[in-house]
Amino acid sequence: MKFNIALLAGDGIGPEVIEQAVKVSDAVAEKFGHEITWKPALTGAAAIDAVGEPYPDETHEICASSDAVLFGAIGHPKFDNDPTAPVRPEQGLLKMRKKLGLFANVRPTFVFPSLLDKSPLKKERIEGTDLVFFRELTSGVYFGEKGRKDDGNTAYDTNMYTREEITRLARKGFEAAMQRSKKLCCVDKANVMETSRLWRETVQGLEKEYPEVTVSYEFVDAVAMRLVQWPKDYDVLITENLFGDVLTDEASVISGSMGLMPSASLGTSVSLFEPIHGSYPQAAGKNIANPMATVLSAAMMFENFNLLEEGKVIRDAVNKALAEGIVTEDLAEGGKAYGTKEVGDWLAANI
Amino acid sequence: MKFNIALLAGDGIGPEVIEQAVKVSDAVAEKFGHEITWKPALTGAAAIDAVGEPYPDETHEICASSDAVLFGAIGHPKFDNDPTAPVRPEQGLLKMRKKLGLFANVRPTFVFPSLLDKSPLKKERIEGTDLVFFRELTSGVYFGEKGRKDDGNTAYDTNMYTREEITRLARKGFEAAMQRSKKLCCVDKANVMETSRLWRETVQGLEKEYPEVTVSYEFVDAVAMRLVQWPKDYDVLITENLFGDVLTDEASVISGSMGLMPSASLGTSVSLFEPIHGSYPQAAGKNIANPMATVLSAAMMFENFNLLEEGKVIRDAVNKALAEGIVTEDLAEGGKAYGTKEVGDWLAANI
Ligand SMILES: CC(C)[C@H](C(=O)O)[C@@H](O)C(=O)O
Ligand SMILES: CC(C)[C@H](C(=O)O)[C@@H](O)C(=O)O
């Protein structure tokens, strides 16, 4: 097969980790007879510096006309803690999500047996954890009407959801549940919020189309607790944009493998793949960043093209690297630390 | 001193644990020469069953004319998972908060050295944890306009905050920080929400009145992560209603002493004190519920009257009971388990 992949390296360690994912993807393409054309484009602080805009139109054209987007990381300290700055990298992120219609953010949390000790949680609590969040990404309070009244002394935000928005996100969750253990948890705050009641109603309406899936409904505060207490209890979780923002980040620390977690943002036509970690500017250019989360994001990309074998060889290579200690300094534990590039080379050579 | 205390036992184990807190408070009153008049009133499912209303007017009169409210727990399985039922116990809770003006929910999370092993987190991560949330409780999305449009196919909720609402909550946080380690964290989502930007602006404006307090601003998703990773990094945290709902519940599990955590909801005239645990209907009437969280809530009540010594004797008695193994079955660890009433008797006798 032939693919055009938009390549949005972004800021900080983004370019370095993306380079390794490209290397590994090219090795996969060669092995399976695919052809990938990479289309680099600007985003984040890098794009603000170059053209004054975090998600330039030209970048959007490239993304929209590609088969997928591979994304590094964005964010730069000079924009930190100034949510009122006129142009900020995260505005580009939100614009990109909306314009590309990336409505379902898929965030798996799973454990690597060799890394269990890195978790702040006790080993027996997390062993075997394997859950995945489907977070709605293009609606809710992120995109609702907001503003000020009373001379700026009153502020408001509107959270809004339509039945269709909920349905298309929920279907992704049900489909994933069918491929997994047929357990789905809808996370809401239906004892307080009207949007949550519509979520619950809509998901209840879909239950009959997926009779094999056991659906539970839990309040967001209860899930925030139980995720830390009993992460193994969960499998597929679906939720709205803001709850998903908080809970997926919370979930990412429990496995102890946060630096390795990939993600996907599924769109109506094009989908995007990126590591969940940030741009980590302190490490930029030092060849020390761990590229595995980005490499695993490339695996999700192949799997999303339904190329399951291609995804699997990448996952196998990563597992092998972990087992053999071919890791960057964050995982070296006093052993030998390899560079970002060396880990990428090793993974590509082991495809 | 003379006090009238409204006594809202509520549902499930509420009446049993409240009984012990009354016993202990009476022992304190006797020791220090105070006089407490208890004013029992109906609330929760118990009130729905009796008068069709979870927070009857008569209960409100009693609360509003008392010096404080001591609250057990509400909630009954027959109302669970039916957020569309016409009358629900939690509506009474919200009505009570609003009508009594309980604007600041104070939720401490601290550790008992003998209980560290109960935490899902590793001991070295939580040892020494001592943080307190100030959650705004009478505004935000809980009380904003909400409804449906498009034949019920679109739902919305409005989150709204005024500068005054933020100011009075934030001041409580600053004052607590001054009594503690002079560190305050404002939790918001100012990169997305206008209400959060008003929170940040308002808190920034207060900084100069409390020059000794070091203030940090963190996004809610980052705090959801870092609370699990490094709970010891936090001291006083202030936040809005919905973020507080999620984060205080998350924080409650990290200490391993969830069943022991008290809370206060400070109002403009009267304040309320309650354990953070639920009504635990399965245990109701069995004399097995742990009364310590409710007893410690009574300690917070005395402290809020500025009777610090009275609060301290209660805390000392609880610590002594824990050290000597005078505990209910949830903490017995194979040792002897005492009944709810026996623990209450022991605590009262040790005041
Ligand atoms: C940067 C921010 C706007 C963004 C969000 O809240 O969605 C981030 O936290 C994320 O989860 O991707
Ligand atoms: C029962 C519910 C409405 C309530 C809330 O969300 O405030 C509860 O979760 C709490 O935190 O006291």
Write the layout of secondary structure elements.
Two copies of one chain form a homodimer.
Chain A: E1 2-10, H1 14-32, E2 35-40, H2 44-51, H3 57-64, E3 68-73, H4 89-100, E4 102-110, H5 123-126, E5 130-136, E6 146-149, E7 154-162, H6 163-179, E8 183-188, H7 194-206, E9 214-219, H8 220-229, E10 236-239, H9 241-254, E11 262-267, E12 271-275, H10 292-304, H11 308-324, H12 329-332, H13 340-349
Helix pairs in contact in A: 1-10, 1-13, 6-7, 8-9, 10-11, 11-13
Provide a quick synopsis of the model:
Chain A has 351 residues and is an alpha/beta fold.
Briefly note the CATH topology name of the largest domain in chain A: Isopropylmalate Dehydrogenase
The averaged pLDDT of chain A comes out at: 95
How many domains of chain A, as an integer?
2
Q: Give the name of the CATH superfamily of the largest domain in chain A.
A: Isopropylmalate Dehydrogenase
Count, helices of chain A: 13
Radius of gyration based on Cα positions of chain A = 20 Å
Question: Tell me, what's the shape of chain A?
Answer: globular
Helical content of chain A stands at 40-55%
* Beta-strand residue fraction of chain A: 15-25%
Biggest protein-protein interface?
A: A-B, 59 and 59 residues
Q: Which parts of chain A are unreliable, with pLDDT below 50 for 5 consecutive residues or more?
A: none
What small molecules are bound in this structure?
A: 3-isopropylmalic acid
User: Based on the structure given, which CATH architecture of the largest domain in chain A is correct?
Assistant: 3-Layer(aba) Sandwich
By CATH reckoning, the class of the largest domain in chain A would read Alpha Beta
